[in-house]
Amino acid sequence: MNDRTLGIAALLLAAFLAWFGHGLEAAFAYEPVGPRAFPLLLAAVIGLCGLRLIVKGGNPAAPNPPGANSRIALMVLLVLVYAWLFQVVGFVLATAVVAACVGRLFGGSWLQCSIGGASLSLLFYVLFDRLLDVVLPLGWLEGLL
């Protein structure tokens, strides 16, 4: 794979995000921007980066080191598990568990990853739920937070 191939893939992803995000509408106006702003902004950034890669040229990419492909596959699986856990157990627990697992994939110890995952999930909960007024599911922690 080279930069141009990655740029074309980025443009395709940006087009999909723009198409998907354009149709998002809230049933009621709960925030001034609405739900379509994030996917459209993300599509614009990914599209610009894709264009840059296409224009820049075709640097060949080095092959992945041994074991990287299995870690990439596990990351994709973790994203799917996170999407399921998010609704079942809530944002804080799902984020802590998945962040700890991702940290383990990158070589951290269980202690480091557990502390980092718990800290990250609580920090993001306070940031989004309390400061930015983004409602997040609490799941099993409903009565505690």
Automatic annotation (TrEMBL):
Tree of life domain: Bacteria
The keyword Calcium is annotated on this UniProt entry: no
Transmembrane regions: 36-55, 76-97, 109-128
InterPro entries: DUF1468
Residues in DUF1468 domain copies: 8-137
Keyword Membrane: yes
Keywords assigned: Membrane, Transmembrane, Transmembrane helix
Name of the protein this chain belongs to: Tripartite tricarboxylate transporter TctB family protein
Protein's organism: Comamonas koreensis
UniProt lineage: Bacteria, Pseudomonadati, Pseudomonadota, Betaproteobacteria, Burkholderiales
